[in-house]
Amino acid sequence: MNPTIKERLQLAYAAQESRLFYSAWPESPRAYAEDGMQSGLLAFQSLLTQNFVGLQTHGSEGWIGEEISPYFMTGLGIKYPAFSPNTLIQNAELAQKIWSSTSIDLRATILINALDSVANRFFEIAYATMHTTGQGFMMGFQASGPHANDRALEVLAMAYKELTRFPSDINWVKNMGKFDLALQKNYKAIPKGVALVIGCSTFPTWNTLPGLFGSLMTGNVGIVKPHPKSVLPIAIVVAEMQKALVAAGLPASVVQLGVDTLANPIAKELAEHNAVKLIDYTGGSAFGEYIESLPGKTVFTEKAGVNSVIIESISDAAAVFSNIAFSASLYSGQLCTAPQNIFVPATGIQTPDGNMSYDTVVSGIANAIQNLVENPKMGSGVLGAIQNDATDKRIKDVSLGRRLALQSMPVPNLEFADARTASPVVIAVEADDVTTWRHEHFGPILFVIKTLDASHSLSLASESAQSLGAITCLCYSNDVAYMNQVESTMNKVFTPVSFNFTGAAFVTQHAAFSDFHVTGGNPSGNATFTDAQFINRRFVWVGNRKM
Amino acid sequence: MNPTIKERLQLAYAAQESRLFYSAWPESPRAYAEDGMQSGLLAFQSLLTQNFVGLQTHGSEGWIGEEISPYFMTGLGIKYPAFSPNTLIQNAELAQKIWSSTSIDLRATILINALDSVANRFFEIAYATMHTTGQGFMMGFQASGPHANDRALEVLAMAYKELTRFPSDINWVKNMGKFDLALQKNYKAIPKGVALVIGCSTFPTWNTLPGLFGSLMTGNVGIVKPHPKSVLPIAIVVAEMQKALVAAGLPASVVQLGVDTLANPIAKELAEHNAVKLIDYTGGSAFGEYIESLPGKTVFTEKAGVNSVIIESISDAAAVFSNIAFSASLYSGQLCTAPQNIFVPATGIQTPDGNMSYDTVVSGIANAIQNLVENPKMGSGVLGAIQNDATDKRIKDVSLGRRLALQSMPVPNLEFADARTASPVVIAVEADDVTTWRHEHFGPILFVIKTLDASHSLSLASESAQSLGAITCLCYSNDVAYMNQVESTMNKVFTPVSFNFTGAAFVTQHAAFSDFHVTGGNPSGNATFTDAQFINRRFVWVGNRKM
């Protein structure tokens, strides 16, 4: 293997093991080509209304595509090769015969080369992400670019470590008293089969790459089934992966893109196919539970969750409210890590200036959001656009007839006058009004829940994480005993806690190499990026013995 | 932690990582106390017809026990405390509050101390194993004693490695351009909950300890539900574990023994209980598939398999036939690793003396078995006794109206005149008679299957492993190309291959620290002793962050 490839994997694994900060691709667009934005935009624009070039088309049956830009509010007009599930499986099985016999060194080299090529298209991918997901430019760049690549490298590094954990050949000798029994043994990591990766509409590369790279690195072949409304970013990535495969003399169909439409979905047929042994899924809970229930499959899911904020006491009200406002507003609350339910005692919270009432907290949060939304330098960039009409409708529905501390507003966008935007609605609600707050409201919808006291807040947050799932929990407290209680109670329901985040620390951000994303222990998903089992469950150790 | 405990874990993990020979407890009875056999026998005898002493009885509802010695053919008369499933769960949940907050160092110390105490009772356990499972003394000693302890230590070592893989606390610093963002982070391995371990009748400790020690070491509490006919060996182990817990000031009910009867089984009620999150199961396929289908549980199974022997060419016919005879006769074919189907080409096999016909191979194997069975120094010790009447009946049923190369015979046993014994029946069968050979016949039942050629043998063995499961495959061949083909074809269906075993190498033996037992990739089970995921799936990483 190229020594620098091996060094990069070792560096990345050392970071994972230490959990300290590490990034292989800078997150600032300024670290890349000076004309990156301009040429990325041109590259993106040149794709519009065209058949997408660069994906293998062998066996395809025409062209399909139905993406709509949440900024333009018109179709992108990009079409992708359409394949029947059977063709995808046949291509995959042919490719697998070759891919599963490649060395892990060759796999690592090809997959890292692909990531490097993807990095040359980060700006183009950023625009592709904006105009499919509705993310702002900066988030589109970071999440679909360097952060997604970092998550993929993290997986490759963990996989390299796990695949080389045991020797490939040994001489085993056991003394039997009067003689030695000697056996030659070998140990092989046998891939499970065809891996299906089902993408989501909001994070088409970030949520797809970990499972895809994990399955490929361990010798399985991959079929990516993107959300039909968010294809372009992952199409660019898969095209670069296929290019790297072909450059190495291997079949492009080691990784395939299986695009479908809302009217003719193919995910179920693929998932249920006997050849498909591995499934990575990001999306809604109902389909996720169906995927988890399929017999004979190894499944990794990230489903919905309801994330909580617990406010017990604070030091700097402005800093706290602005931090919550940012996390709730970022990409209009469409992150899986975004808070939904804010628990505040009816008796108020402690501050350095004495007690702050529940109502003051509610209006503090509402005002901070309003200031952010109306800030012309921040608003549209931070909030981006709403990915789909269902989310838009959900905001309107939840607002009807409820006590709104802040109503959802359009987000002024100078660049895209037609953008589908909506700022967070803030709803003050009693703890016992569980039909209102105690289920997932995906999108920019915040409840400030009036609880009996801080202990009640914790028990509601914990119970909700256990029953509905949670990916994050943000807690503000200056009371060490309470903090310990929150940490141990939420950890017991497999929910990580972030304490007293202000400034540039946001609960929505999970850093590659350091933060596990989704624990896998509660209903928000059954797996985590990236622990060892995220890799090890994709292959099987088999040992042979010879006299 | 006691430094020697840590050293022992590190030594054991180093062995696992290198896969070289290692054993923490010698397998020869002579390495133990000189009067071990005598005092072990007395200890065993003193347990007969008594209420078993040493298990916690809090909340028990009387005494039950229905074990029958396959050697005496009378009941042992030993009774164990009976608990309702609800009592077991309540005890477990109380204990869990304490156990999950103990340090991994304390857990390791207690569990290794327990293994050391168990080692003091290896002889007693050997007799207990003989008189529940029907194993011969030597196998009862080795399998339930040092080999089971080694497998448990292997699990503890892997768990210690995995639980300390990531730091418990770090300072994470990310440069944000003009300032550094600093967060304190911690990482916790949170146990999943109550672990149920369902044992089997033939290997009551060897198959129970890995899952039990894996769950306990990772902070879960355990309920062992032994097979009602094979309780005593694991009762002794659990009693020693409870003693070690109590000595450390911890609740005995961190591990409980939940005995039941054939008439009133409790496995299902326990398995389906919401508090039970982990299940380790060894036993038949039907119940194993039910266990695997339970939603919301993390499940590790070892079910049935059909193991193959493929004979293509041999160097030393006598050595080969005697090796096969031993593996087929050991514990009367009641090992999960024992061969059932021997594939031999109709055209015969190559030997140094020219072609050997199919019929000669059949009679060679039959004769070797007969010689072993009738050898007064070997027979009864190697074959032991038949654990239950169902196996005995299966031998008789399969023999009816079939072409027997060797019929099953009683095994002369000078010590136990009433022992339930049966030597292997050898049945010559055509490849297309699939209703005869192509399903599991648990016990001393061997088919020598006449195939078209060596390639046909391989495809039948491979297809059988894929559909029915297989834990082992033994191949005899001097043709390197064929051997490679067998290895890659059987490995693709997740079956390990042992080549050309003669002398003291037996396909039935899987060595701790070196051989994975069951791959987890075919229907014979979904897990392996002991890879990293055998540990990692028992707990969840949760990371917390503080500003």
Quick structural overview:
Two copies of one chain form a homodimer. With 547 residues, chain A is α/β, with parallel strands linked by helices. Chain A is built from 18 helices and 19 strands.
What do you see in this structure?
The structure is a homodimer of 547-residue chains. Chain A is α/β, with parallel strands linked by helices and 547 residues long. Chain A folds into 2 domains: 3-303 and 527-546, Aldehyde Dehydrogenase, Chain A, domain 1; 307-499, Aldehyde Dehydrogenase, Chain A, domain 2 (3-Layer(aba) Sandwich), CATH 3.40.309.10. Helices cover 40% and strands 18% of the residues of chain A. The first copy, chain A, contains 18 helices and 19 strands. Chain A has helices at residues 3-18, 36-47, 85-99, 104-119, 122-133, 137-163, 209-217, 232-247, 267-272, 285-293, 317-329, 358-374, 379-383, 389-399, 434-437, 454-468, 480-492, 532-536; strands at 63-64, 80-81, 169-175, 180-191, 194-198, 221-225, 255-257, 276-282, 298-302, 307-311, 339-345, 349-351, 354-356, 404-406, 425-430, 445-451, 473-476, 498-499, 539-546. A 7-stranded mixed beta sheet of chain A has the order 14-15-16-11-10-17-18, sandwiched between helices. The first copy, chain A, has a 5-stranded parallel beta sheet with strand order 7-6-5-8-9, with helices on both faces. The first copy, chain A, has a 3-stranded antiparallel beta sheet with strand order 3-4-19, with no helix packed on it. In chain A, strand 8 (276-282), helix 10 and strand 9 (298-302) form a beta-alpha-beta unit. In chain A, helix 2 (36-47) packs across helix 5. The longest helix of chain A has 27 residues, at 137-163. Chain A starts with a helix and ends with a strand. The mean pLDDT of chain A is 97.
